[in-house]
Amino acid sequence: MTALPVPAPLRPQPDPMPLEPVSYPQMLRTPRATRGRGVLMIVCFVAAYLLISAVLQGGALAVDVARGATSVEDLLAMKLALTPTLLIAVNLTNAACIPLSMLLQRAFFGQRGRWLHSVTGRFRWRVLGRGALVALPFWVLYLVTTLVFAPEDVQVPSGTYIALGLIVLLTTPLQAAGEEYGARGLITRGAGSWFASPRLALLVGTLLSGAVFTLAHGAGDPWLIAFYFAFAVVLSLVTWRTGGLELAVLLHTFNNLVAFGSLVLLQQDTSTVFDRGAGSAGPSVLLPGVILLLSAAALWFWASRAGLQRAYAPTAPDPALGAGFHPMPGSGFGPPPPLDPGSTYVGPWSQSGH
Question: Name one GO molecular function term (predicted).
Fold first, then answer.
């Protein structure tokens, strides 16, 4: 009688989580990390983003041309006005970066998407809410200053501008969050996985994500280039200091709401939205830059006082399961990771299990 072949033992997969405490930029510094994985993940993200942008925004432009909102001549000359259709497409393109980033992190490093939110494995809504109370006065000051220096001949918004305003209110938070999950999240972590040194991981991750973020905005004016890069650096430092993307998303949302709101509802001129060439900006960008710095500094001080968890805390190995066994948070083994003040952990030890 022929003996059945004995199947080869399954080789255990390397742990998808860090084996020691790490800050947010090094969350992909795991036993699975290789330099090639990080590079390929970032390249795939950029390529997928460009594809999504071409499909959604290309479709929106085709709709605008078909209904006469944009002429073929203006389209070929890249003289584009911001229409409701195009604004929805742009914001949905950026919002798509949230699931895209989670999917690529899981595909290349085996790490669940929820770990992209923060080092605690969840989006800390209380942190977002309390941070909003700290930062909101600065952005109200920005809005008031914008209103004070608004043109005197402001007219009652037309139906088109009301539609644009509603789209801004409803989709800008998702648009801002998508940019943060892609730049300060996936790209920063992909670069951070290359280095054992926390400082080097933070430095390279910040510079690379800032460069990609700046290039993605297509600015050709020196003032705008400086603003976008400084904006990216500040939000990278806020993410590192607070251990998650919540407050970076908050600041990005505040900035975009005030900027788009004043442009759409006060100036009622969308013909210059996509004009970022030389001479399109000037010292006026210093105002949002100063507001960003002040609000980020206030959040930094508050985060220090609140004692937010800013490093991932792996669970200790269970001696009963062997010295080489490191239970992964979310696997159900071992105690839950430490909680940060002001938030309730949602994980395998809760009723939801996710």
Answer: endopeptidase activity
What pLDDT, on a 0 to 100 scale, did the predictor assign at position 162? 81
pLDDT in tens, 276-294: 666 667 788 888 999 999 9
The amino acid sitting at 82 is L
The whole-angstrom separation of Cα 279 and Cα 290 is 21
Q: Token pair 């696997």 is at which residue?
A: 331
| Long-range pairs, 138-144, Cβ under 8 A, ≥24 | 138/291, 138/294, 138/295, 138/298, 139/254, 139/255, 139/257, 139/258, 139/291, 139/295, 141/291, 142/258, 142/287, 142/288, 142/291, 143/258, 143/261, 143/262
Nearest 5°: CA angle at 94, between 247 and 167?
90
Backbone φ and ψ of 11, nearest 5°: -80, 125
Compute and round to an integer the Cα radius of gyration of the chain: 23
Q: 244 pairs with which residues across the strands?
A: 118
